[in-house]
Protein backbone atom coordinates (compact mmCIF):
# COMPACT_ATOMS: atom_id res chain seq x y z
CA UNK A 1 0.00 0.00 0.00
CA UNK A 2 1.43 3.36 -1.04
CA UNK A 3 2.13 5.79 1.76
CA UNK A 4 -0.15 8.76 1.13
CA UNK A 5 -0.04 11.83 3.36
CA UNK A 6 -3.40 12.97 4.68
CA UNK A 7 -4.26 16.58 3.84
CA UNK A 8 -6.47 19.39 5.14
CA UNK A 9 -8.38 19.67 1.85
CA UNK A 10 -11.61 18.19 3.22
CA UNK A 11 -11.53 20.28 6.40
CA UNK A 12 -10.81 23.43 4.40
CA UNK A 13 -13.77 22.72 2.11
CA UNK A 14 -16.04 22.23 5.13
CA UNK A 15 -14.84 25.52 6.63
CA UNK A 16 -15.77 27.19 3.37
CA UNK A 17 -19.32 25.97 4.00
CA UNK A 18 -19.35 27.52 7.46
CA UNK A 19 -18.23 24.69 9.77
CA UNK A 20 -15.60 25.73 12.29
CA UNK A 21 -14.98 22.90 14.78
CA UNK A 22 -14.36 19.83 12.64
CA UNK A 23 -13.62 16.60 14.48
CA UNK A 24 -12.02 13.58 12.87
CA UNK A 25 -12.91 10.17 14.27
CA UNK A 26 -11.51 6.67 13.74
CA UNK A 27 -11.12 3.38 15.58
CA UNK A 28 -8.41 0.73 15.91
CA UNK A 29 -8.45 -2.89 17.03
CA UNK A 30 -11.48 -3.91 15.02
CA UNK A 31 -9.88 -7.10 13.69
CA UNK A 32 -8.16 -8.26 16.88
CA UNK A 33 -8.87 -11.46 18.79
CA UNK A 34 -8.25 -9.79 22.14
CA UNK A 35 -8.45 -6.43 23.84
CA UNK A 36 -10.75 -3.46 23.35
CA UNK A 37 -11.63 -1.57 20.23
CA UNK A 38 -10.43 1.99 20.85
CA UNK A 39 -11.77 5.10 19.14
CA UNK A 40 -10.08 8.47 18.88
CA UNK A 41 -11.58 11.87 18.10
CA UNK A 42 -9.54 14.99 17.34
CA UNK A 43 -10.32 18.62 16.49
CA UNK A 44 -7.18 20.00 14.87
CA UNK A 45 -6.30 23.68 15.19
CA UNK A 46 -6.28 25.17 11.66
CA UNK A 47 -3.64 27.67 12.79
CA UNK A 48 -1.23 24.98 14.11
CA UNK A 49 -0.33 22.71 11.22
CA UNK A 50 0.98 19.26 12.16
CA UNK A 51 3.11 17.88 9.31
CA UNK A 52 3.49 14.18 8.59
CA UNK A 53 -0.03 12.97 9.35
CA UNK A 54 -0.66 9.56 7.79
CA UNK A 55 -2.99 6.68 8.45
CA UNK A 56 -1.59 5.16 11.66
CA UNK A 57 -1.04 1.79 9.94
CA UNK A 58 1.52 3.44 7.63
CA UNK A 59 3.68 4.80 10.43
CA UNK A 60 6.33 3.26 12.64
CA UNK A 61 5.69 3.05 16.37
CA UNK A 62 8.31 5.78 16.91
CA UNK A 63 6.61 8.11 14.43
CA UNK A 64 3.19 7.43 15.98
CA UNK A 65 4.49 8.26 19.46
CA UNK A 66 6.06 11.50 18.19
CA UNK A 67 2.88 12.54 16.40
CA UNK A 68 0.73 11.54 19.37
CA UNK A 69 2.67 13.99 21.55
CA UNK A 70 2.28 16.73 18.94
CA UNK A 71 -1.43 16.08 18.34
CA UNK A 72 -2.35 15.98 22.01
CA UNK A 73 -0.39 19.18 22.63
CA UNK A 74 -1.53 21.26 19.65
CA UNK A 75 -5.08 20.07 18.90
CA UNK A 76 -8.05 22.15 20.00
CA UNK A 77 -9.50 18.99 21.58
CA UNK A 78 -8.92 15.26 21.58
CA UNK A 79 -10.47 12.27 23.29
CA UNK A 80 -10.56 8.48 23.32
CA UNK A 81 -13.13 5.87 24.27
CA UNK A 82 -13.32 2.10 24.04
CA UNK A 83 -15.55 -0.92 23.96
CA UNK A 84 -14.23 -3.89 25.91
CA UNK A 85 -14.36 -7.55 24.80
CA UNK A 86 -17.59 -8.28 26.67
CA UNK A 87 -19.33 -5.35 24.97
CA UNK A 88 -17.94 -6.42 21.60
CA UNK A 89 -19.36 -9.91 22.12
CA UNK A 90 -22.71 -8.49 23.16
CA UNK A 91 -23.13 -5.89 20.40
CA UNK A 92 -20.91 -7.38 17.62
CA UNK A 93 -17.73 -5.65 16.50
CA UNK A 94 -19.35 -3.25 14.04
CA UNK A 95 -21.85 -1.82 16.52
CA UNK A 96 -19.27 -1.79 19.34
CA UNK A 97 -16.89 0.19 17.12
CA UNK A 98 -19.61 2.73 16.31
CA UNK A 99 -20.46 3.05 19.99
CA UNK A 100 -16.81 3.62 20.91
CA UNK A 101 -16.58 6.34 18.24
CA UNK A 102 -19.77 7.98 19.52
CA UNK A 103 -18.34 8.08 23.04
CA UNK A 104 -15.03 9.49 21.81
CA UNK A 105 -16.77 12.36 20.00
CA UNK A 106 -18.87 13.13 23.09
CA UNK A 107 -15.71 13.58 25.19
CA UNK A 108 -14.66 16.59 23.10
CA UNK A 109 -14.77 20.10 24.50
CA UNK A 110 -15.45 22.32 22.66
CA UNK A 111 -18.20 20.35 20.98
CA UNK A 112 -17.63 19.94 17.22
CA UNK A 113 -20.15 21.23 14.70
CA UNK A 114 -19.05 18.65 12.09
CA UNK A 115 -17.65 15.13 12.45
CA UNK A 116 -15.73 13.42 9.66
CA UNK A 117 -15.49 9.67 10.10
CA UNK A 118 -13.47 6.93 8.45
CA UNK A 119 -16.01 5.12 6.23
CA UNK A 120 -19.10 5.16 8.46
CA UNK A 121 -21.59 7.59 9.95
CA UNK A 122 -22.00 7.30 13.73
CA UNK A 123 -25.54 6.74 15.07
CA UNK A 124 -26.70 8.84 18.01
CA UNK A 125 -24.83 12.07 17.28
CA UNK A 126 -26.77 15.31 16.88
CA UNK A 127 -24.10 17.24 14.95
CA UNK A 128 -23.52 17.05 11.20
CA UNK A 129 -21.42 14.14 9.94
CA UNK A 130 -19.67 12.97 6.82
CA UNK A 131 -18.39 9.43 6.28
CA UNK A 132 -15.30 9.31 4.06
CA UNK A 133 -14.10 6.11 2.41
CA UNK A 134 -10.40 5.64 3.29
CA UNK A 135 -10.72 8.78 5.35
CA UNK A 136 -7.68 7.92 7.48
CA UNK A 137 -5.57 8.21 4.29
CA UNK A 138 -7.25 11.36 2.94
CA UNK A 139 -8.24 13.60 5.84
CA UNK A 140 -5.78 15.01 8.36
CA UNK A 141 -8.28 15.10 11.24
CA UNK A 142 -9.19 11.43 10.74
CA UNK A 143 -5.53 10.47 10.41
CA UNK A 144 -4.82 12.28 13.68
CA UNK A 145 -7.67 10.40 15.36
CA UNK A 146 -6.33 7.08 14.08
CA UNK A 147 -2.88 7.87 15.48
CA UNK A 148 -4.25 8.84 18.89
CA UNK A 149 -6.41 5.71 19.05
CA UNK A 150 -3.56 3.44 17.92
CA UNK A 151 -1.05 4.77 20.43
CA UNK A 152 -3.54 4.58 23.31
CA UNK A 153 -4.57 1.04 22.40
CA UNK A 154 -1.00 -0.21 21.91
CA UNK A 155 -0.05 1.15 25.32
CA UNK A 156 -3.08 -0.53 26.87
CA UNK A 157 -2.14 -3.86 25.28
CA UNK A 158 1.44 -3.59 26.56
CA UNK A 159 0.07 -2.97 30.05
CA UNK A 160 -2.25 -5.96 29.73
CA UNK A 161 0.75 -8.07 28.73
CA UNK A 162 2.25 -7.24 32.12
CA UNK A 163 -0.88 -8.61 33.79
CA UNK A 164 -0.85 -11.84 31.72
CA UNK A 165 2.32 -12.42 29.68
CA UNK A 166 1.28 -15.82 28.27
CA UNK A 167 -0.13 -14.43 25.02
CA UNK A 168 2.47 -11.84 23.94
CA UNK A 169 0.08 -8.90 23.78
CA UNK A 170 3.02 -6.47 23.88
CA UNK A 171 4.18 -7.79 20.51
CA UNK A 172 1.07 -8.51 18.43
CA UNK A 173 -1.37 -6.23 20.32
CA UNK A 174 -4.13 -8.84 20.13
CA UNK A 175 -4.07 -9.48 16.38
CA UNK A 176 -4.27 -13.05 15.06
CA UNK A 177 -0.57 -13.66 14.47
CA UNK A 178 0.86 -17.17 14.40
CA UNK A 179 2.37 -16.54 17.84
CA UNK A 180 -0.98 -15.44 19.24
CA UNK A 181 -2.88 -18.38 17.73
CA UNK A 182 -0.31 -20.79 19.19
CA UNK A 183 -0.70 -19.20 22.63
CA UNK A 184 -4.49 -19.47 22.48
CA UNK A 185 -4.22 -23.10 21.41
CA UNK A 186 -1.96 -23.75 24.41
CA UNK A 187 -3.75 -21.70 27.07
CA UNK A 188 -7.29 -21.18 25.83
CA UNK A 189 -9.04 -17.82 25.83
CA UNK A 190 -8.36 -15.32 28.61
CA UNK A 191 -10.87 -12.78 29.96
CA UNK A 192 -9.31 -10.32 27.49
CA UNK A 193 -10.32 -12.38 24.45
CA UNK A 194 -13.44 -11.80 22.40
CA UNK A 195 -15.48 -14.97 22.63
CA UNK A 196 -17.30 -14.15 19.38
CA UNK A 197 -13.97 -14.16 17.49
CA UNK A 198 -13.10 -17.80 16.88
CA UNK A 199 -10.66 -18.44 14.01
CA UNK A 200 -11.40 -21.68 12.17
CA UNK A 201 -7.91 -22.98 12.97
CA UNK A 202 -8.80 -22.93 16.68
CA UNK A 203 -12.27 -24.48 16.59
CA UNK A 204 -10.94 -27.85 17.71
CA UNK A 205 -8.35 -26.58 20.19
CA UNK A 206 -10.18 -24.18 22.53
CA UNK A 207 -13.23 -24.44 24.69
Can you tell me about this structure?
The chain has 207 residues and is of the alpha/beta class. It has one domain (9-162): Nucleotidyltransferase, domain 5, CATH 3.30.420.10. Helix content is 41%, strand content 15%. It is built from eight helices and five strands. A five-stranded mixed sheet has the order 3-2-1-4-5. β1 and β2 (37-43) form a beta hairpin. It is globular and about 55 Å long. The model is unreliable at 203-207 (pLDDT under 50).
Query: Uncertain segments of ≥5 residues (pLDDT<50)?
Result: 203-207
Instruction: Quickly give the structural class.
Output: alpha/beta
Name of the CATH class: Alpha Beta
Give the number of helices. Answer: 8
What's the overall average pLDDT, rounded? 93
Give helix % range: 40-55%
Number of domains: 1
**Strand order within the widest sheet?**
3-2-1-4-5
Keywords:
207 residues; Nucleotidyltransferase, domain 5; 8 helices; globular; disordered C terminus
Please outline what is shown here.
The chain is an alpha/beta fold and 207 residues long.
Layout of secondary structure:
Blueprint: H1 9-16, E1 22-28, E2 37-43, H2 61-74, E3 77-83, H3 85-91, H4 93-106, E4 114-118, E5 128-132, H5 135-138, H6 140-163, H7 169-172, H8 178-187
Parallel strand pairs: 1-4, 4-5
Antiparallel strand pairs: 1-2, 2-3
Helix pairs in contact: 2-6, 3-4
